[in-house]
Amino acid sequence: MLAGRFAPSGLELAATGPVEDGGVTRQGMVAVVSGRIDNREQLVRAAGLDATTSPADLVAALYGARGDELLEELRGSFALLVWDGHAGLLAVDPLGAGGLFHAEEDRALLFASEAHELLGLARRTPDTSLGGLARFVVDGALAPAETVFAGVRRLRGGHFLWISSDGWEEREYRRPRYRRPTRVPAPEAAATLLAGVESAVLRSVEPGEAPGILLSGGVDSGTVATLAASAGLPLRAYSAVFPEHPSTDESKLVDVVSTAVGMPSSTLAFSGGGLVAALFEYVRAWRVPPAAPNLFFQLPLLHVANEDGRTVLLDGQGGDELFGASPFLIADRLARGRLLDARRLALAYGGPHPLREYGLKGLLPWFVHHLRRSLRPAPPRLLTAEAAETYREENDPWRWKRSRAPRWWAFACDLLTSQRERSGAHDFLRHKFALGGVEGRHPFLADLELIELVLQLPPEYSFGTPDRPLLRAALRDRLPEAVRARPEKAYFDQVLLEALAEDESALRELLGEGAQVHRIVRRDLVERSVLGLAPAARAQGWAWLTWRLLSAEVFLRTMAEPSFPARALETWELSAPRYSVQSG
User: 3-172 sits in which CATH class?
Assistant: First the structure.
């Protein structure tokens, strides 16, 4: 953990920080690394250092030789500090996966790799950000660098804070840059993609590790499992299945993959239970609302892996976005007068009105959206007047159009970098796996080299049915055909709806009269559209909105009373998850 306070008069690390564990280097510098540097071994060899050199000593050596240019060489998911007594830097990896939070208090800079650690450093607890919570409830994502705490910022990926006796300032050191896609035939592009994916999977595992993998019946986790097993890694699969929900259950496909690669597996058959207990557990530990509602069946699965002695789990998180089509290529084709090509892409992409939504709207410049939003602001009807005003201030869903790159690339780059930070995906996954006692590794989510490779492949190769055609082509004869060619995708909507129904009394206790979230959302609409909606009328949109409202309410109550989650877990009658585990 990295946490401390900096003022021009000096640097002070939190007593609980890792300085005592090697953070002070032999060169007399202070260097702390939280997270993982994927290419540590290569950098150690290139610098002529001993193979046992720690990440902190490596960072100190590189900083002494190259200053802040060292950041351009590091890969992984990390936050770091290096300080030579006069100047230094605080940095996060190029994708922001490691997490670094900062705030100013009494002319000092507070910093920490977790938001709750920063709260512990502050003499005054920061206020809640009304706009941040409004964006979380409505959009499930915040503005760039925004958090749910007023005055607390999340350092954006590829940025660092330069600190010196003059103070501090934020600087950028690396973000993906547009390069014209390489024009190659589709089979060659598929081979290039396969090689890149294999390299990313191998980079996510260190020598000597015996990782597990979260395996579903989908293409993404199946790809990771197949390529990792082909490399000889001693894997074990961990899967959540839903035998009472045939449209969601993927147990047969899980068996297909695990059998094909000769991988033992542990299966958690989920049969019911509520989600509020897991929500309380998460907010109690991290003091922020979670980014996804799947904790109630995934935490027990992570505990199974932990009990098996697995310390690292791989997964296929992020594959949908990484390998899917960038629909605004339709706009680029229209801009070049290639009308038939634009129509062909729209038909291949599917969905309602793709030519209008991604072609014509995509052609509009950013300032048109900005002007329309300024002249005709239309905040969500759900919000209170005060929350609507703060929501408008940072609401800019078309900000990616400010890039001078082609529309398809600007949208895809934003989706794979900034959007993942703003949705809280990196922080949530880090927190979720830590609650389960393991470390998560996500080659499709946090590998910059793979992302940059995908962004340079011809974008038209990602259009088709079923989706992710280039990845599927790359995996021909590698991934079992039942998974590789499967057009369907399992969704957990019904499981989520039933979990909310099991916690109906807690739902009404949290969102009913006296709910703190009524500062953000209109009480009458919550009572009518959330609490008052008949169970038969509840659907996916209701489930996700209700879950975000619950998350915001638990967060607000915890900010007001830090002991609230623990007290509720002890005294409320909550529905525990019901499941059985089978190992094979």
Answer: alpha beta
